[in-house]
Design goal:
- The structure is a homodimer.
- Chain A is built from six helices and six strands.
- Chain A is α+β, with helices and mostly antiparallel strands and about 140 residues long.
- Chain A folds into two domains: about 5-85, Arc Repressor Mutant, subunit A; about 90-140, Ferric-uptake regulator, C-terminal dimerisarion domain (Dna Ligase, domain 1, 2-Layer Sandwich), CATH 3.30.1490.190.
- In chain A, helix 2 crosses helix 3 (about 40-50) and helix 3 packs across helix 4 (about 55-65).
- The longest helix of chain A is centred in the N-terminal third of the chain and has 13 residues, at about 20-30.
- The structure holds a DNA duplex (30 and 30 nucleotides).
DNA sequence: CTTGCAATTGCAAGAAGTCGCAATAAGGAA
DNA sequence: TTCCTTATTGCGACTTCTTGCAATTGCAAG
């Protein structure tokens, strides 16, 4: 698992600035251990960085996702959520009740290899979201 | 492939109203043959329905997606796009140049069965988006 | 320690999308 | 055809998110 220090060093090496704003946002995500919405991140980070703006939070999340430090995902309500890119995984969400299951990336490894073979692309891990009905809701006949 | 008439009949049977607004939006999507953004849909549909509002377009797209008449997807720029749910497929997008490849759902059939077995969920088809680097861009060493 | 460059941020304006409520209208029953 | 119920829409206010630009600041060089 990458610490904030090693992530910072890596990003600096690539010519990026590690500002207090960026460090605070990274720390919020690192401490959370789950995904957060931009407004969740803003609410927490602005406690440590008075004067932080939401525009900066949005820009920083997008920057960290582009650098693969953070995974972005849509979880079905049209909103983007973010999480530290520590453990590759995907989500399976019940369309009726919203219950969410985490899926290891290992389950998709073969598919990814197959898609690479068929397409010529090199796939990056992304935070996929699958939808379905959970065991409780599919019995209810929705 | 379902015609607008048969989709309308099906929705009416479920107690929904098939208003001129909904028919116009369905027709725009049906004629497009590709995915459209909400503002694309609004621009086209409002030609036929003067007075149509964007609020109605957003609500109708969300309604049609919920009824599985339309597939919604995020294509990497944070925006939602919509397409008739005619041919189950997914997307593979190059993160560098934006080039997009369409992936048949058939390639994911086994994975879906596997996930159903492992989770107890019944998966619905969703419009997944994979990311990677296309053959041209991965050679460029990004 | 100082300086200069260019990346990053704050700010305000604007775009995209959502919500509550009254008015409108789809459609079934009579 | 008329009437009534209730789903749906228009509207305006609001929230969420993005953008351009000037000011600020991280950081490498000296």
């Amino acid at each position: 698992m990458n610490s904030i220090d090693s992530l910072s060093t890596m990003l600096r090496k690539q010519g990026f600035r590690m500002t207090p704003q960026r460090l605070a946002i990274l720390k919020v995500l690192s401490d959370a251990g789950r995904h957060l919405s931009p407004s969740d991140v803003y609410a927490s980070a602005s406690k440590n960085i008075p004067g932080l703006t939401e525009a900066t939070v949005y820009r920083t999340l997008e920057f960290l996702a582009r650098q693969d430090v953070v995974l972005a995902a849509h979880i079905g309500n049209g909103k983007m959520v973010y999480e530290m890119a520590e453990c590759d995984h995907h989500h399976l969400i019940c369309r009726a009740c919203g219950n969410t299951l985490q899926i290891d990336h290992a389950l998709l490894q073969k598919l990814y290899q197959q898609l690479e073979g068929a397409s010529g692309y090199r796939l990056t891990t992304s935070h996929l979201t699958f939808f379905g009905l959970c065991p409780d809701c599919k019995e209810g006949g929705k």
